[in-house]
Amino acid sequence: MHRQYNAGTFTAFCRRGGDWKLPKEKVKVNWNLEIQSIFAAKLMTSFDLLQGDIDIIENETITNIHNLYKSLEEELEGKLPRWTFASLSY
Predict the structure, then answer these.
(1) What mean pLDDT comes out for the span 27-36?
(2) What is the pLDDT of residues 45-58, one digit of tens each?
(3) Is the CB of residue 20 less than 8 Å from the CB of residue 28?
């Protein structure tokens, strides 16, 4: 169908943001929305799954960092000298 339209017609289509009115028709159709609707539902399902995975990974990463910090804190406990400002000589 679109092979019959020349480059100027395509340029006008782009300039109108995807709105298209067939000759002798009164109703405009937004081709961008029409094209998007073909794959939008499937794409949104995938994005929802990805978002769920990101939330899980984020929570696991925070837990792992916390556990690493606690592990290092316990490992260094008693190995480093305790100091206070009073023990510093000026």
Answers:
(1) 79
(2) 888 889 989 999 99
(3) yes
**Whose structure tokens read 């073909």?**
38
Q: Containing H/E element for 43?
A: helix 31-76
Give me the domain span that covers residue 31.
2-76
Reference 22, options 38, 1, 51; nearest CA is 1
What tokens were used for 5? 């339209």
* Alpha carbons 54 and 61: distance in angstroms, whole number: 10
**Is pLDDT above 60 for 2?**
no
Residue 85 resides in a domain: no
Helix (H, G, I), strand (E, B) or coil at 30: strand
What Rg value do the Cα atoms of the chain yield, rounded? 31
